[in-house]
Design goal:
The complex is a heterodimer of chains A (350) and B (275). By secondary structure, chain A is of the alpha+beta class. Chain A has 9 helices and 19 strands. A 6-stranded mixed sheet of chain A has the order 7-8-9-3-10-11, sandwiched between helices. In chain A, a hairpin with a 2-residue loop joins strand 15 and strand 16. The longest helix of chain A has 17 residues. Chain B is mainly α and 275 residues long. Chain B has 14 helices and no strands. Classes of the chains: A alpha+beta (350), B mainly alpha (275). At the A-B interface, strand 7 and helix 2 of A face helix 8 and helix 9 of B.
C-alpha cells in the first residue's frame, strides 16, 4: 500500500511539479502557504484533477500515467478523502453518510449499515447516529468525515486541511484523535496543511511546497531543526541565514560573520532559535559570543514572551520576557545589541 | 398634494417615515390598485351562496378533472425530460449550449397561440412529423386530451428547466467530488447527491410548471380545440361560461385564483421573501 507520485499540472499561472513517496502506514504532510499548489496535488491523487505529466502509482498500479494515456476515474480509485469543510452530505444522517461509500462500492444496504454502525461506535458518535450534519459540532463532523473516508477500507487516505474548519480549542482534541486513527490506518496517508503544528503532530514525513515546487523533504524533526527556506524557518520559529563555512566561522552572504558550534566547510545554512538570542542596551563583554548591532523592526506577543524582529547586518528574531523588554525600552527603531553563544548556533550543509 | 398617504409602515423604520417620496408613491399606489382591484372585484361579485352547486355541475367537474390531470401529466413529462436537459445546460461542455438554452426558453416569451399553431404544424395530421406518424400508425394528436397535455408541456416546461438549471448552478459541486472519492459513478452521484441537493429547486420548478400548465389557454385552444370532456380545460370553460353563465365563470375563476395563491404560498420562500 505504497504511493509513488510525480504530479505535474498547470493551475492558472502556477506550474505545479511535486514528487512524493509514501510507504504503507506512513503519513506524509504536504506543508506550504496558501496557493502553493498543495490541494491541487491532492486533487490529482484523488483523480479529481487531470495531471499534464508525471505518474501516480499505488502499490504498483498506475492511477495516472498521462504518457501512456492511463487515467483511473476518481470513483474507481481505492481512496478515501477528507475535505476541508468535511462536505458531509447535508440530506443524509451520520450513519448514512458513513455508509455512502460502501453502498457506492456495491455493498448491500444491510452490510453497509452494519459496517457504518461499527464506525459510528468507534468514533464515539452513537448519540448522533441519525443526526443530520447541520446539527453536528465541528469536531463531530470531522469524525464523521474521517469515518466516511475510512469505512470503504481505502488503500490511500487523502486529508485536505482536515483541521482548518475547527476552532482552536476543538482542534487540540480532534488533532489527538486524528493522530490516533491515522496510527491505526494501514494504508498510505497524504495530508495537506498550512499549519506546521498539524504537520509536525501528524506526519512521519514532511514535504514543504512553495509556489508549486518541493523546497524541502524530511522528518518533522529534521525540517524543524534544519529549515532550508525562509518560509519553513519562520513556520518553525527559527532565524535562517545562509553563508559559507570556514571551520567554525561562517561568512554570511551579506558579509557578516557568525561563530558556530561545529566546524565545517562550504555552503551552509545557519539556524538560530529566538530563545537563544540575548538583547543588550550596550555591547556585552565576554566570549565566545556572536555580537551584532541591530534595530528593532517589530515586537509582537508570542505566548508568554515577546517576539522581537531585528534588522541589521544579521537579521534575527529574539524572544524576550516582557520585563526585559520594558527594561530595554524595545520601541520600534530602537538600537540594541544582539548576542548568541556559538554553541547555540547550528550550521548544516546547504 | 402633501397630504400624508396612509401606507403601512415598514418594520425597519420605526420612526414613522416611509422613505418613499410622493413622486413615486402616487404611481406606485395606482399600480397596486390596478393589480389588486380586479381580484377584489372577483371576490365581491362571487356568487358565494350558489358556489357549491355551480362547481358541481358535470361540465365544471369534467373541466376541473381534465385540467388537474393534464397539468399534472405535463408536469410529470417536464420533470422526466426537463431535469436532464437542465443538467445538460448547467453542467455539460457541449458546444452551442447558449443557443440551446435560448431555443428551449423561447416558449417562455412566445405568445401561447403561436405555440399552438407551431404544434399544429409539427404534430397536426398534416404536420411535419404528424403526417408520417398518422400514415404509419393512424395516431393523430390534435383535438385529443394528449394534445392538451402536449400544449401545456410546450408552454410550461421552460419554467421548470430555468428553475432547475439555476439550482444546479448554485449547488456546491464539491459534494459531487466527495461522492466520486467515495466510489459513486456519475449516475449514482446524480441520483443520491445532486438531486437531493437541488430538490427545493426541482419542487419550485414543478409547482411553477404545474401552475402555468393549469392556466394554459392559447396553445390549448389552438392545438387541442375545445371539446367538452376531452380538451375543454378550466380556462376554456371559464371563457365559454362567461357568455352563457357568468356566475359559473366567476366561480371557476375563484378556483383558479385560489390555486394561484396556493402556488405563491408554496413558492413563498423562494420568490416572495426577497428583500
Amino acid at each position: 500500500m505504497s504511493l509513488s507520485a510525480h504530479v505535474v499540472i498547470q493551475r492558472g499561472s502556477l506550474g505545479v511539479d511535486v514528487a512524493l513517496e509514501v510507504k504503507p502506514g506512513e503519513v506524509l504532510a504536504l506543508l506550504g502557504p496558501n496557493g502553493a499548489g498543495k490541494s491541487t496535488v491532492l486533487r490529482v491523487l484523488a483523480g479529481l484533477a487531470r495531471p499534464h505529466a508525471g505518474l501516480v502509482r499505488l502499490d504498483g498500479q498506475s492511477l495516472d500515467d498521462p504518457a501512456a494515456g492511463i487515467r483511473l476515474a476518481p470513483h474507481r480509485r481505492p481512496i478515501g478523502m477528507v475535505f476541508q469543510d468535511h462536505l458531509l452530505f447535508p440530506h443524509l444522517s451520520t450513519v448514512d453518510n458513513i455508509a455512502f461509500g460502501l453502498r457506492a462500492r456495491g455493498s448491500s444496504r444491510a452490510a453497509a449499515h452494519t459496517v457504518a454502525a461499527r464506525w459510528v461506535a468507534r468514533m464515539h458518535l452513537s448519540e448522533h447516529s441519525s443526526a443530520k450534519p447541520r446539527s453536528l459540532s465541528g469536531g463531530q463532523a470531522q469524525r464523521v468525515a474521517l469515518a466516511r473516508a475510512l469505512a470503504g477500507d481505502p488503500r490511500l487516505l487523502l486529508l485536505d486541511e482536515p483541521l482548518s474548519a475547527l476552532d482552536a480549542r476543538t482542534k487540540l482534541d480532534v488533532r489527538a484523535d486524528l493522530r490516533h486513527h491515522l496510527g491505526d490506518f494501514a494504508g498510505a496517508t497524504v495530508l495537506v496543511t498550512h499549519d506546521p503544528v498539524d504537520a509536525m503532530a501528524l506526519a512521519d514525513q514532511l514535504v514543504v511546497v512553495e509556489r508549486g515546487r518541493v523546497v524541502q523533504v524530511g522528518t518533522p524533526v529534521e525540517v524543524s531543526r534544519r529549515p532550508r527556506t525562509d518560509y519553513v524557518a519562520r513556520l518553525v520559529g527559527l532565524s535562517l541565514l545562509s553563508g559559507t563555512a570556514h571551520g567554525r566561522a561562517v561568512l554570511l552572504d551579506n558579509g557578516a560573520a557568525v561563530q558556530v558550534a561545529e566546524a565545517s566547510n562550504g555552503p551552509v545554512f545557519v539556524a538560530i532559535r529566538p530563545a537563544s538570542v540575548g538583547l543588550y542596551r550596550s555591547r556585552p563583554d565576554g566570549s565566545p559570543r556572536n555580537v551584532w548591532p541591530a534595530t528593532v523592526a517589530g515586537v509582537t506577543p508570542y505566548g508568554e514572551t515577546l517576539r522581537v524582529d531585528l534588522e541589521g547586518e544579521v537579521p534575527l528574531t529574539a524572544d524576550v520576557s516582557p520585563e526585559a523588554a520594558a527594561e530595554l525600552d524595545l520601541v520600534l527603531g530602537a538600537g540594541v545589541w544582539a548576542s548568541v553563544k556559538a554553541s547555540e548556533v547550528a550550521a548544516y550543509p546547504a | 398634494m402633501n397630504a400624508p398617504v396612509s401606507v403601512r409602515q415598514s418594520r425597519s423604520q420605526p420612526d414613522g417615515a416611509t422613505g418613499v417620496p410622493a413622486i413615486l408613491l402616487i404611481p406606485a399606489s395606482i399600480a397596486v390598485a390596478f393589480l389588486v382591484l380586479p381580484l377584489a372585484a372577483l371576490l365581491v361579485r362571487a356568487p358565494w351562496s350558489t358556489l357549491g352547486s355551480l362547481l358541481s355541475t358535470p361540465e365544471v367537474r369534467d373541466a376541473l378533472r381534465l385540467s388537474v390531470v393534464s397539468a399534472s401529466l405535463a408536469t410529470l413529462i417536464s420533470l422526466v425530460v426537463g431535469v436532464p436537459l437542465a443538467w445538460v445546460l448547467a453542467r455539460s461542455q457541449i458546444r452551442g449550449r447558449g443557443v440551446l438554452r435560448a431555443l428551449v426558453t423561447v416558449p417562455l416569451v412566445l405568445p401561447p397561440v403561436v405555440g399552438g399553431v407551431a404544434l399544429l404544424l409539427a404534430l397536426g395530421r398534416r404536420g411535419v412529423l404528424g403526417e408520417p406518424l398518422y400514415s404509419a400508425t393512424g395516431v393523430s394528436f390534435p383535438f385529443t386530451t394528449t394534445a392538451v397535455v402536449l400544449a401545456q408541456t410546450f408552454v410550461a416546461m421552460p419554467f421548470l428547466i430555468i428553475s432547475v438549471e439555476g439550482s444546479l448552478r448554485a449547488a456546491d459541486r464539491r459534494y459531487e467530488d466527495a461522492a466520486a472519492t467515495l466510489g459513486a459513478g456519475r449516475a449514482m452521484t446524480f441520483r443520491r447527491v445532486t438531486l437531493p441537493l437541488i430538490a427545493p429547486g426541482v419542487a419550485a420548478g414543478a409547482v411553477l410548471c404545474w401552475a402555468r400548465a393549469l392556466g394554459e389557454f392559447g396553445a390549448t385552444i389552438t392545438f387541442a380545440g375545445n371539446f367538452p370532456g376531452t380538451t375543454r380545460t378550466m380556462t376554456l370553460q371559464v371563457y365559454l361560461a362567461l357568455e352563457t353563465d357568468p356566475d359559473a365563470a366567476i366561480a371557476l375563476s375563484l378556483v383558479l385564483l385560489a390555486v394561484s395563491i396556493l402556488t405563491l404560498g408554496l413558492l413563498r420562500d423562494r420568490w416572495l421573501m426577497r428583500t
